[in-house]
């Protein structure tokens, strides 16, 4: 089994503290408009970029992460981690294992020059098949290119108490950064305090995590609690991802208008139980003490989004 390298990954240095826009081709101009002004922001592009999109990437001067988006379409299986079977001729099933390494190498070598990091084209990993996490990590390591990051798209229930320890143990086997996407059939996968507590525990336990395809409140909370970088979905399908097959996301909105906020309220208190669940109101984040490390991370995240932070006391019950 691959052993975890506990040293910070240098490939992530340009991205640390970044709040990115996760977008598909239809909304790439919106994502560019909202990120190009912020030198510590950028775009996670979901899908296969065409010539026009590749040209648009040039405006970001290398601040692009490529996500093939297989997790939106298909589930990973022990014999087909990256959805290669749907592209292969019927008689090529025996070649999938060999094709896997070739596919990853080809992805890296053919990526546009403006792309800094490439995510593995992982299919969605069901919660009852978490051992596939190790297989994805090992496949990425075999490619031996620091720009290739294992993407782990899985169900948000892996953050629940009965699954959390195993999830963290599997993710820690990586010797590279990890990109994480957490999906759920529910309208608000992070509506409960238990899920948010699980996410914070994971981020404190697993180093070098990029949390992608999430809402602004979840992204900023993750930035406060140790995520190396986060990505806010430009449309609803990438803000509230669902396991495949799933409905298409709703109309795109500019990132600055996703929550209708010009400021974000941060509860300044010591009792986490007093904080409403993240999904109940986008204005509510976790408690922050002014001199704490989480306060510093929050201020950095907010600088990268241009939002103003306003402290407030939690509502009385």
Keywords:
alpha/beta; TIM Barrel; 9-stranded parallel sheet; two-stranded parallel ribbon; 9 helices; 11 strands
Map the helices and strands.
Blueprint lengths: L17 E6 L4 H8 L7 E4 L4 H7 L6 E4 L28 H15 L4 E5 L12 H12 L4 E2 L1 E5 L5 H11 L6 E6 L9 H13 L3 E6 L1 H9 L4 E5 L2 H4 L23 E5 L25 H13 L2 E5 L5
Parallel strand pairs: 1-2, 1-9, 2-3, 3-4, 4-5, 6-7, 7-8, 8-9, 10-11
Helix pairs in contact: 3-4, 5-6, 7-9
Describe the protein in words.
By secondary structure, this protein is of the alpha/beta class. The chain has a single domain, classed as TIM Barrel (Alpha-Beta Barrel). Helix content is 29%, strand content 17%. The protein is built from nine helices and eleven strands.
Oligomeric form: single chain
Q: What's the story with the biggest beta sheet?
A: 9 strands, parallel
Low-pLDDT residue intervals, each spanning 5 or more residues: 89-96, 246-273, 275-291, 306-312
The strand line-up of the biggest sheet is 5-4-3-2-1-9-8-7-6
Shape, per Cα inertia axes? globular
Number of domains: 1
Radius of gyration: 19 Å
Helix content: 25-40%
CATH architecture: Alpha-Beta Barrel
Summarize the structure.
With 317 residues, the chain is α/β, with parallel strands linked by helices. It contains 9 helices and 11 strands.
């Amino acid at each position: 089994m691959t052993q975890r390298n506990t040293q910070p990954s240098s490939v992530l240095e340009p991205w640390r503290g970044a709040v990115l826009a996760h977008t598909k081709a239809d909304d790439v101009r919106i994502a560019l408009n909202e990120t190009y002004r912020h030198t510590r922001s950028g775009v996670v592009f979901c899908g296969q970029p065409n010539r026009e999109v590749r040209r648009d990437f040039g405006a970001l001067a290398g601040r692009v992460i490529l996500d093939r988006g297989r997790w939106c379409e298909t589930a990973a299986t022990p014999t087909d981690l990256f959805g290669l079977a749907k592209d292969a001729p019927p008689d090529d099933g025996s070649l999938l294992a060999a094709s896997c390494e070739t596919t990853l190498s080809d992805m890296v070598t053919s990526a546009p020059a403006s792309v800094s990091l490439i995510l593995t084209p992982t299919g969605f990993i069901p919660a009852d098949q978490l051992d596939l996490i190790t297989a994805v990590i090992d496949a990425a390591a075999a490619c031996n290119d620091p720009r290739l990051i294992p993407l782990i798209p899985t169900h948000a229930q892996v953050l629940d108490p009965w699954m959390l320890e195993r999830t963290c143990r599997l993710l820690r086997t990586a010797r590279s950064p990890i990109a994480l996407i957490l999906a759920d059939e529910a309208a608000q996968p992070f509506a409960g305090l238990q899920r948010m507590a699980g996410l914070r525990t994971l981020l404190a336990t697993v180093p070098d995590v990029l949390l992608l395809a999430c809402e602004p409140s979840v992204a900023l909370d993750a930035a406060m609690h140790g995520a190396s970088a986060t990505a806010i979905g430009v449309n609803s399908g990438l803000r509230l991802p669902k396991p495949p097959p799933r409905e298409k996301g709703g109309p795109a909105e500019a990132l600055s208008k996703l929550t209708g906020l010009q400021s974000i309220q941060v509860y300044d208190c010591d009792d986490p139980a007093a904080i409403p669940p993240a999904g109940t109101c986008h204005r509510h984040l976790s408690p922050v003490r002014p001199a704490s490390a989480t306060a510093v991370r929050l201020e950095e995240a907010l600088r990268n989004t241009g939002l103003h932070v306003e402290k407030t006391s939690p509502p009385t019950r």
